[in-house]
Amino acid sequence: MNRTPYELTLKSQVTDARPEYRFRTADGVVSKQSFRHAELRLLDSLWDRDLGRLLCPQANYGVTGVVLADAAESVEMTETSARAARLCEHNSRQNGVETSVSIRTDLTAIDREFDAVAYAPKRYAPVAVAKQRIADALSSLRPGGSLYLAASAETGLSRYESQLRDVAASVTSLDERDGCRVLEATRPQRVDPPTYVTPRTLRPTVGGETLALTTVPGVFSATGLDDGTRLLIETVTVADGDRVLDLACGYGAVGTYAARTADCEVWLSDDDAVATACAERSLDASGIDGTVVTADCVEGVTDRTFDRVFCNPPTHAGDGVLSELFAGVRDVLAPDGEFAFVRHRELSLRNHLAPFRRVETRRTGTEHVVVTAKP
């Protein structure tokens, strides 16, 4: 991650804390230019509590975990985003606190118990996904441990409170300000986490091939193959022996198609561990061998070169992410290789194509355009 243009400073308003905390943020993470009210409410509510071993799921760039590291016995922050996890690590070092940071999709796989969990669901998290994290986080606590949840009406507060009243031993409200409430839920002696998120298999026929693609709520185009990716697949060609990278792979549609149509070496990479877990299942369901990595932009493949790089870029993530993504493609593309990507017809990505010599519009669909670029 080369471009990190945002720096935030949090002034302490509690006793026995350092005067300020500094946080680096970047395009591609939630609330990159301001602190989230939910996380600030967690800090106000938890600073004076005996937190013991603290777990912070979906830690974003680390505000809750970094500040509470000064009050807790230990802190583990988890993220599904490789970019966010790296920012958590950087911000821990920058503020001189010790934390553990890991990229995880399944909190139940953590091999130790915690005394407390501090969780503030992100605004655009699907309710089913956040409820699964709440249930899994509750089960990661020791019996009698506390899960602290901060949410507002727009992030699903009423649904999460109802869920906690069904699965927790007790639920109390600690604080409510700025439309955000902090709840404390106690873990009962026995927890059997309900299943709120169930994978589904899509079977689209594209380019003459019927694919088996695994999705879950929260990944891009979870209910059906999107038109842009379909147009990209229908446009590109892959030859036997090609080294192929499906970048920002999502649940792996392009990589799966490439490996189904040619005897090629396939790599799939995405910043989101939930997406890459789906991509691995998509390859398995199709009986395809491939390598899947969870990494920010091309960080997981910088030691390799590829003949073909395919991408439906995450344009919603911001110019910083796109600039790094396109520059990274140029670095891993073979001298005679080709980069093919799809964009919306009304969205120009010209500013990000400076690293490439030859750029050509290959195909125009109803709403999307496929572009190829060569070094």
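^ that was protein a. below is b, sequence first then the tokens
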Amino acid sequence: MTEIKRVGVTRRWSDAVIYQGLAYFVEVADDSSQDIRGQVAQILLQAKQRLAQIGSDQTRLLQVLIYLADLQDAVVLNELWDAWIPDGHAPSRACVQAGLAPGYRVEMVFTAAIMTN
């Protein structure tokens, strides 16, 4: 049986979970007082850092599920997203409206392949 590796484990969640060459993690803005542009920028930076931490990068993303408090924010999301994802490496992606915690405008759920030796 393949071992499950957990990174940044707390009582309620792990920062990332790795199993059979796949990594699963969720990002929300560290500073929820920012507008949608600020929150998306934070999440994309945090995701890039998390990917590097677990031995992956943006070219290895398989799927991203994006939850927006307001779908009208998709214009800003897509602008920043398009600049962040390398050409030819877009993952499968869904973007839906959802009730999020107060102050939060966006949450992203990532699945990525990790690089193996």
